[in-house]
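Format is chain and fold; as here:
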Amino acid sequence: MMDETIQPSPLRALHEELKAQMDGFDGYELPAQYPSGAEVEHLHTRKQASLFDISFLGQLRVRSKEGNLAIVAEALEQLLPTNVIGMEKGRMLYGLLTTDQGGIRDDLVISRQEDDFLLILNGRNRESNADYIENALGEDCKVSREFDRAMVSLQGPKAADVLGAVLGVSAITAMKYRDCHDMPWENGTITVARFGYTGMDGFDICLPANLAEAFARRLLEHPELEPAGMLARNTLRLEAGLCLYGTDIDKTTSPVEAALANNIAQCRRPGGERAGGYPGAETIAGQLEHGIYRQRVGLKPSDETSLPNGAEIFSDAEGQDRIGRVTSSCLSPTLRVMIGMGYVTPAHVEVGSQIFAKMDDGTMQPITVAALPFVPLAER
């Protein structure tokens, strides 16, 4: 019996029909993998296209009570170091909610729609982060939680072909990377973004829960599309060098330490026209100017030995000088080698640096600092 604290996905019946192995992810019961297995799903995504259920993500709409989106943009800039004011309608950005100490409260996607802003929050803390956003934005903004809606992700080089067959080829091919548009489907409206969490071409689609199963079934009629689970999604994002909240980034890591400083808009940096004004701005500005004590890097073992998550990293084979730890790792289905990410001190961030990870049995495994991403990103 499913844990009553875990919510079923709107696509649960379809997952069961497809004999998915189900597991809990951020409060939702979602497919870990299907009978073909996570590795096959991963490789199929790389070559053709796969459909992922990502309904655990929280959809949040923010409107102005006076109908003035500029007011909402100004308010949102008080929460994250992003150029929200400069966003064009129908476009989206990756953003970071920061803490007063300069850490990362959440990473999210924000889209400027016709009448509101759509925020996609991580499922892990979506209720508490929605509370935080609502309280911080003030009385001029109205926040609507649409956590009962569904969300699917169509990823891979054939994703545009698959979605175009359902929504119309011209509508899909006209979309640029990070475009986000409302589109009609059946008797409702869906929100389609050319975006994703795999480093590949693809689309994230928000839609009413009552349309989700019919829409997914329609997509899966395409011969090049297969369903894929959360295990494949994780290995794909790690090959792309993308962070997982709660694993690679959290409230104790800053955007600069996490190698995400490129998501701090130039106009919000020191000397910019709207510099600062967001939580932790002084700390982050200091890091941009003076440097940091640790940085996220890619990691590869020197041989095929495993690379345990959480393993401590040392500069020496004797384990005397601890310089960081591993945060994510997996056997890359594409490269057929172990890959990982972690944090090390600035003296060891250069690609090719040899350092050492302490294995579960206490032995010291040579590892090498590697360039991110491990697999080249799709052309944008």
